[in-house]
Each structure stands twice: as C-alpha cells, then as structure tokens.
Amino acid sequence: MTTVRDTTRGRPLNTPEPAGKGPRIKVVLGKMRFDAHDVGARYIMRKLVDAGMEVVFIRFALVEELVDAAVQEDVHVIGLSSLTGGHLSVGKDLADAVEAAGLGDRLLVIGGVIADDDRASLKAAGFDGVFGPGTKAETIVDFIRTNVTAA
Amino acid sequence: MATKLNAETAAHEQLELFSASRLPLKPYYTPSDREGKPYDEIGDPGDYPFTRGFHKTAYNKTPWMMQQVLGAGNADETREIMDRLVTEGMEGYFGHAVFNVVFDNPTKGGIDPDRAEAKGHVGVGGMNFSHLDDIRRLVKDLPLDKINLSMITGDTCLIALAMYAVAAEEAGYEPQQLRGNSMNWLLKSFCVDNPDFPPRNAQKLVVQLIKYCTENMPYWNTTNFSGYLIREAGCSGVQELAFTLAWGISTIQACVDAGLDVDAFAPRLGFQIAFHNDFFEEIAKLRALRRMWAKVLKERFGATNPRAMHARVHIHTAGDTLLAQQPQNNIVRVALQALGSMLAGVQSVHSCAYTETLQIPNEEQARLALRTQQIVLHETGGAKVADPLGGSWYLEQLTDDIEARAWEIIDEIDGMGGFVASIESGWVKSQIVDELFETQDRINDGELVRVGLNKYEVEEAAETKPDVFTVDPAIEQEAIRRITEWKANRDQDEVQRRLEEVRRAAAADDYLMPKLIDAVKAKATQGEIMDVFKDVYGWGFVTN
Hints:
The complex is a heterodimer. Chain A is of the alpha/beta class. Chain A contains five helices and six strands. In chain A, strand 4, helix 3 (87-100) and strand 5 (107-112) form a beta-alpha-beta unit. Chain A starts with a strand and ends with a helix. Chain B has a single domain (39-380, 398-462), classed as TIM Barrel, CATH 3.20.20.240.
C-alpha cells in the first residue's frame, strides 16, 4: 500500500468551489492489488483536489487497507477505482467491510470499467454512486458535493 | 478572382494545424519541402537507416504475424482459445503458429493462486500460471520447434522462461530449438503503477535473461521495449517514441557493460508500440523509430551486423482509443489502426476486440478482431508494396519532425544520467502524468473529439450492450487445488536447497538461469522463486 497526496496541475475544473462552503470534503480513493490502470483515478483525484477536496490516494491495496485508511482519515467519501474486472466481488467485499467498520453513513462510490448491467448489483451491495467509463469529472464532483451530508 | 485567392491564402496562413503530439502541420506539402534533403537519409527498404523497412520484398514473402493476445482461466481454457484461433487462421511467419499468451495479474506479480491476495483475480484477464504443470498443459503435443510462443509477463519472465525451457526439454526439445518472446519488461515501474524491483536491480535481471538466451536460445526474442505500456499510461506519440528508445538505449548499455556483444544480442531485441488515432503521425512515428534505432545501434554502439540495427515492431492497437459508448464504433477504429500498421511495415500486430473496453473477448469478438487483420491483408492490396506512403512530402516531413522532437527528449534524458536515473528521479512519470492530465482535460471539455463520448452520443437505452466474456469462478478453486497438490508431492528439502541456490546466485550477481531451471525441476513454484527475488532485490513502488 502506498499513499499519495496529490498536487494540482493543469487546467482548472469547470465547477469551482462554491462560496460559503462547509468543511473540506475528505476522500479516500483506492485501487486494488494488481490494478495498475491508474489514468482515470489520477485524473479524478486531481479534479477532486481542484474542487477543493482533500484526497488520499491508495494504490495496490487490499479492502482492509482501504477501510483502515478511511477510518484513520475519517473521510466523507470512500471511492474505489476498478479497471481489471472483478468489481462485483471486490465491490461487495468493500461495501461489507465499510459497513462493518461503522462507516455505513459515508458516501461510497465506485468508478472504472463497469458495464451498465452491473450498476444495479453494485447499488444493491451498498454503493451510492457508480461511474462507468467516460464519466465527466464534473459529474463526480457534483455528485459528491450534493450527497455528502455536512453534519 | 484575385480577391478570393488572397482570402484563401490568408486563411491558410492563419490556420493553426497540429498533429496529435502538437507537431506543426501545413494544409499541403510540396516537393520544396524536401529540398536539400537527400534520399540517402531515408534509404531504400532493406537499406540503412531502414526508415522504409527491412525487406525489399515487402510482405510478399510472408505477411506480418497476427499475434492476438489471448489467455484466460487456467492452461486448459487458454489452450482451447489457442487451438480455436489457429483454426480461424491466426498465423505467424510462413504460416507457423504464433501464440501471444498473457497471464493474469497475480501471475504477473509473482503471487501464487493459493495466496489471499490472489482472491478474485485468478484467471481474470489472463491465464493463471504458477508451476511447471501449467506450461506443460499449455503446450502439450505442440511442435515446439515450429511454434512461436510469447509470454506476456514482466517481472516473472525469467521464471516463466525457465519453466518453458524445462517443459520443452521434457517434450524432447532443446533450448536452441525454441522460438518465442520474453517481454523482459522489468524496467516498467515508471509507467505501470504496480510495485516492482528497484530499477537498477531490474536491469540486472534484464541482462541475465539476454545473456542466457544469446548463449542458449538463438531463436528466442529476449526483450520487448514496450512503448505501448507508456502510451497507455497517458504519454503522447513523441514521448512514446523517445522514452521507448531511451529504454532500449539503457538496456543495450547495460548489456555492453556486462560484456555482451551488441552484434550478437541486439538482433533479438524488439519493440511493442501502440497504433493510436492520428493516422499519419503514427506511421511517421514507426518510420522514425526504425531510423533512430538504426542510428543508435550503428553510431552509438558501433554495431556492424545489419540485423542488430533492425527495430522489429509488434503493434498493439491502442486500447486507449476504444470507448465503452457505442462499442461497435471500436470495430472501425481497430480497422483503421490495423490498416495503418500494415502501411507502416511492422512485423506483428495484435488487433483489439471491440469489447476490449469492457472485458477480454468472447469467441465471436475474438474472431472479428482477427478478421480485421485478415481483411486488411487480403483485400486492400496494401501489402504488396513496401512503405507505400514513403515519398509523400507530408509523411517524410512528419517523420523528420517527430524524429527531431524525440532526439531532444533523449538528449535531455542523457543529460540526467540516462534512462534509469530519469526513472528514479520521477521525471519520466511526471512527464507522462502531465500529458495525461492535458489530454483528459481536453476530452472532458469536449475539445478533443471522441465520437460517442463527447460528440454524437446516444441515450443509454439505445446503447449496444454486447455480451461480455466471463471467467468461471470455479477456475480459482481449481487453480488452488492444483498448486496445493503440486506442493504436497515433491521433495521439500530439495526445493529449499534449490531456492537457496537461487538466493545465493541472485545476491552475488551470478549466472541465474541455470539455478532457476534447477529450482523449476525441483518443483518450486513461481511465487516461491519470486519471493526469493523480492527479498534479494527489493520490491516496492518506484514513483508516486
């Protein structure tokens, strides 16, 4: 496992931080063991930071490691990036572990190479948001801002 | 009339045209663009510097190899796919069978299927391969002196090769008879976001494999400098060219430093390159690659064997260009990329299935991907003449320009102390990531058109949903059962002794392959040998 806190680079996001915002939204974004396809995760991570969020990026993780980090960092959002298939099984494991760790009230999202048909299973397993290939960065940012409860 | 012409000229001058890698373009080119540039700098096909390819006979003696990546489940499933694709006409040079086998992620990371970390990944996206019996099953009854076997794995490639050599020997074939490809991608940590051996130690293993093969396996292609991996990580075409060459240069240097003869080992080095969207830039890139590699071998390393100067290329059509939206559009994309590959005169092509954005292909999707190449070869007439686009004032200019840009980057890397140093400092990764952010921003904002994604979208209900290949979950249990049985039925002391010998040889930088072969014969598993390597050489992330 390795954590990376990102720096901002490149052109600004089209959805700047809203005025009168509450505390910074904290996100842990993870990729599982062996899943080296990092283009999407790195891009989304950068966009979340541009949108004023704090992101911890964990590579090559097991479900337990991702959940531990979520607990330690006391995050609002737990995100999984999955591009090697297996999202149904590892997704279920993650959703169950998140619940068991008492983080069931946090926003749980998944993105990557996910067929539309799998959306329902992932939602049923406990994911609040499912973002397939080509999802625009603004869609994810808006979803998180709308759904993270400030309380 | 005069006014209209003036307006057109003015408009022409105002156009800002760029290729995908931001090379400047003109709306048209003329002979004056080649003024003062001798043809010698290009050369005939078959003549130094090989811009136009290696054969005066084009593809007429034999077409390029149709080397489709395949692998799923365990060895039995994968063998079925191999046999089926042969009946579908998948062929290598002169009609010989060619198999481009990819392994699953645990295998590539040296994790045996009975480890907890492998759960959910066994047989997914590639074949599971952990011990000698796997490779025995894979190649059972095949004429190993006639087939060409590529094994797609980076960090475990020495072990995989040792296993294949042992299985071949059991079947009655000497290493000297074997034909195929090791990736030797140990130095990929800068672009593949997985843990790896530290670059300097990775380079040692690379040299060990080249040394063994140069001495024992004259028909084995030892190394595959994979621009494809770098491109898929987000770099541009120019960067792909430059970084791949820098990678190659550093490997040659390491081998020369280890006392190997460049004329002997360089002919068995090769390249894996992406064919991306920008049709003419990609062709120019490949012509520039050939020319630059020839110059590097001759001028930088003093090679005299012409075959040492040949940059033999396997194309993997760019997965990065394929979309999950309206997936059938990918059939068109891959067809164009396969056409471009032929026009660029490459040695081998893998053409992606249209469902690649969702999963590895099922039977029908794999057939279509192969048919794409077969149609390009047999129906377009484009394979009869070598470098058919050569001499285009546009293409020659683009080839010169992409070469010049790539030399600038290579010079910069030399200035940093070489490719390994530029990886260790994180420079290469940061260059790739900067480019990836730029490209993704342009796609996100709709500036870079991706048909079906940011332009010409359809409602979700109208989207095609192809069947996707699924791996039988029972495969994982079967793999665990097989390796458990394997480990239970061997002389445990002998295994430990042989693993200890591998450890000693690795720690002392001694000749490794014979020790690996002994360990394999003692029935050590891939994971067990990799554990020794990881312990001796170190293992972890090289960059952020």
